[in-house]
Amino acid sequence: MAAHPTYKYFLVSTPAPFVAHVQINRPDKLNAFFEAMWLEMKTVFDTLSYSPEVRAIVLSGVGDRAFTAGLDVQAASQSGILAKQAESMDVARKAQGIKRHVEEFQACVASVEKCEKPVICVLHGFSLGLALDIATCADVRFCSSDVKLAVKEVDIGLAADIGTLTRLPKIVGSFSWVKDVALSARVFGAEEAFRVGLVSQVLESKEKAVDAATKYASLLASKSPVAVQGTKELLNHARDHTVSDSLRYTGVWNSAGIQTDDITKAMLSGLKKTKPTFAKL
Predict the structure, then answer these.
(1) Which residue stretches, if any, does this entry annotate as coiled coil (predicted)?
(2) Structural domains of the chain sorted by starting position, each given as residue range(s) with its CATH number in brackets
């Protein structure tokens, strides 16, 4: 089992070989986030991204009540970016400070997406606001049948600005549906999330969803890390670029990737009907 650093707001464990389980750990506040938490989350995922002991990651929240209820509004009102702005500061300087804060916040959440390893997000209980920002950065999403999801930001007086409005339309097939949930901030459940393609699987409970995600992560971890990490990189690039740009990038990427010993090991294991063992990456 891999040893992981100790964090204040996250638990990191190794439930299976080459699999890390990251849990948001503030259950007394429904795992709601404030600044120190999203800064620490970036440290967690940047560390796992480069760890040769990790090939796939499961992300969930501690407790049964919530993956995360989103932003800790009370903490934000007392010590958030607006509370820090001096009343005497002119508008341009206030705006620059807020912009830098938002960019830092976006980068912290995007660390889930930029992590080299595939991330399987398990949504359960209350999964509101920031929960969708984080989940849309993940590669695969499972949920429990009792999940309560919402793009909640309009109910606190702003447009979502940490990633949901950018990523959610690229994940689901209906722009109308995205506008429906983003404009209304209405709560929707597991069946609807599955129907529109936001989640890949719905499980009976959080425990079963985490177990299914861990088994799936173990499957990914059993494959060539060169192939899996390359596939994540190329799919994310394809999402954000034209077909011709993506084909060119794929050719450049695989000019190195195709030289890996993992291809020989995988092909021989198929012929010999054996399970291949791949070197760490």
Answers:
(1) none
(2) 10-221 (3.90.226.10), 225-272 (1.10.12.10)
